[in-house]
């Protein structure tokens, strides 16, 4: 059988392969290897023998250095055929080449990497961070640190770091359990609709896995880095908030009083990190954190009482509005004696009473206005008059909002002032230097 070896003009085969030029119109010449007959065809000539229509495997022109020169190696042929840059002659390319600016390419790669990092942060890091309720967790951690700083016994850097990390992980675990158990109820409240489990960014099972890991690491770090007492308090707080308090939220208004105990335990953890819990001042600190939560939460829940009711959470804000306001005022006034006990038991100096009294009076004033307005709203005279009741309720909403924001600033103010007024802190300014001997 004869073997046909085609020769062709530069670029013609690629055009034919792409369907741009009819294959029969290309000038070709054929040579019969096993014979002496030579034949050439043109566009108008007709072959004198039937052509073999089987597929013919062609070799691209770009693998050659010139019309009659072959590359030295397959690698060189591939390099010449596949290159597409500013050194490639335009006449050898069957398409238009648009050069890319190197700076533009670098910017695109940089944006691609940044987009990848941002995607990981949004899909993994942010949902788990929100699962820990970061603002509440920071508040819990700061209350433990402030109590540790106020304790009369010396502190160490290693214990402080262990207390900070361990308390943060314990709080994150408790909050994750709370979110994992209540997505169907949180979905019904505007305040909690953005939580990761509600939005479907995480499943309840993932929330419980996160809670298990942090719930194990937190008490373990407290045990190894601080002491068993602090570790036990941290583990107890996870159980108290994640399981007992969360279960009672849908059953009885007593859940608010139980939840306030959760806020009172971190100061005990900070104190127990260096000092014994037998000191009465630590209980004054714990009671201060316990009492502060009522003006803070009761005024917050007042303005979203209907959401709590629709979601099935049993809160005093809608079950007993007068009690809700009365409790907020009662515990605001309790701040005065609790701050007094800090000076009485030798934790702060007596100047602390003047500074703390300003902050306490600020919150007590707005709590009083909130209570007085609610007392007036639910009196027999006003409650039966819908117009007057609605006007009074709108005013109570304003006072509740004021009290809430005052409470947000009140707690850090009282704790920071206590640290600044810690007994003996400024004694070095008053100490007289001994006279130099002659």
Q: What features would you describe in this structure?
A:
- Among the domains are: 159 residues, UbiA prenyltransferase (Tetracycline Repressor, domain 2); 144 residues.
- Helix content is 65%, strand content 2%.
- It contains 19 helices and two strands.
- Strands 1-2 form a two-stranded antiparallel ribbon.
- Helix 5 runs antiparallel to helix 8, helix 11 packs antiparallel against helix 14 and helix 11 packs antiparallel against helix 18.
- The N terminus and C terminus are likely disordered.
Keyword list:
mainly alpha; 2% strand; Tetracycline Repressor, domain 2; single chain; two-stranded antiparallel ribbon; 438 residues; disordered N terminus
Describe the structure in brief.
It is a multi-pass membrane protein. The protein is mainly α. The chain is built from 19 helices and two strands.
Topology at a glance:
Elements: H1 12-17, E1 28-31, E2 38-41, H2 74-82, H3 102-131, H4 134-150, H5 157-181, H6 183-186, H7 196-199, H8 204-225, H9 228-248, H10 255-272, H11 280-303, H12 305-311, H13 316-319, H14 321-333, H15 335-344, H16 352-377, H17 380-383, H18 386-420, H19 427-430
Quaternary structure annotation: single chain
Helix-strand sequence:
HEEHHHHHHHHHHHHHHHHHH
Number of helices: 19
Strand order of the largest sheet: 1-2
Q: Report the C-alpha radius of gyration, rounded.
A: 40 Å
- The percent range for strand residues is under 5%
User: Could you state the CATH homologous superfamily of one domain?
Assistant: UbiA prenyltransferase
- Strand tally: 2
Counting helices, strands and paired strands, the structural category is mainly alpha
CATH architecture of one domain: Orthogonal Bundle
* CATH topology label of one domain: Tetracycline Repressor, domain 2
Main pleated-sheet profile: 2 strands, antiparallel
Overall form? globular
Low-pLDDT stretches are: 1-45, 62-66, 434-438
Q: What separation lies between the terminal Cα atoms?
A: 126 Å
Would you state the CATH class of one domain?
Mainly Alpha
Mean pLDDT level: 81
Share of helix, binned:
55-70%
């Amino acid at each position: 059988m004869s073997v046909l070896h085609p020769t062709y003009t530069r670029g013609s085969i690629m055009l034919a392969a792409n369907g741009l030029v009819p294959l029969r119109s290309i000038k070709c010449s054929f040579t019969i290897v096993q014979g002496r007959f030579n034949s050439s065809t043109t566009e108008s000539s007709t072959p004198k023998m039937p052509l073999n229509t089987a597929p013919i495997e062609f070799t691209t022109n770009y693998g050659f250095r010139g019309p009659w020169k072959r590359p030295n190696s397959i690698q060189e042929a591939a390099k010449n055929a596949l290159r597409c840059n500013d050194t490639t002659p335009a006449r050898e390319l069957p398409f238009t080449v648009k050069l890319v600016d190197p700076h533009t390419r670098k910017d695109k790669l940089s944006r691609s990497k940044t987009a990848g990092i941002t995607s990981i942060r949004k899909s993994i890091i942010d949902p788990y961070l929100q699962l820990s309720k970061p603002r509440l967790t920071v508040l819990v951690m700061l209350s433990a640190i402030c109590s540790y700083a106020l304790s009369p016994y010396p502190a160490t850097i290693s214990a402080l770091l262990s207390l900070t990390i361990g308390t943060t992980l314990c709080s994150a675990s408790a909050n994750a359990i709370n979110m994992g158990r209540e997505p169907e109820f949180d979905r019904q409240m505007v305040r909690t609709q953005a939580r990761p489990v509600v939005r479907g960014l995480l499943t309840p099972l993932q929330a419980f896995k996160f809670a298990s890991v942090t719930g194990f690491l937190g008490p373990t770090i407290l045990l190894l880095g601080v002491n068993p007492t602090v570790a036990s308090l941290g583990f107890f707080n996870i159980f108290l908030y994640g399981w007992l308090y969360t279960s009672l939220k849908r059953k009885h208004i007593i859940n608010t009083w139980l939840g306030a105990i959760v806020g009172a335990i971190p100061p005990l953890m900070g104190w127990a990190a260096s000092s014994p819990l037998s000191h009465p001042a630590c209980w004054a600190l714990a009671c201060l954190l316990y009492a502060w939560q009522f003006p803070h939460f009761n005024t917050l829940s007042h303005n979203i009482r209907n959401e709590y009711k629709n979601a099935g959470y049993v809160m005093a804000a809608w079950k007993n509005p007068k009690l809700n306001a009365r409790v907020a005022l009662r515990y605001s006034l309790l701040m005065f004696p609790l701050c007094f006990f800090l000076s009485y038991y030798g934790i702060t100096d007596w100047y602390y009473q003047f500074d703390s009294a300003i902050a306490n009076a600020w919150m007590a004033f707005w709590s009083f206005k909130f209570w007085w307005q609610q007392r007036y709203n639910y009196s027999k005279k006003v409650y039966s008059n819908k117009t007057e009741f609605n006007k009074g309720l709108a005013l109570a909403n304003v006072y509740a909002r004021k009290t809430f924001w005052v409470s947000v600033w009140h707690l850090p103010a009282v704790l920071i002032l206590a640290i600044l007024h810690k007994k003996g802190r400024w004694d070095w300014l008053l100490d007289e230097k001994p006279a130099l001997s002659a």
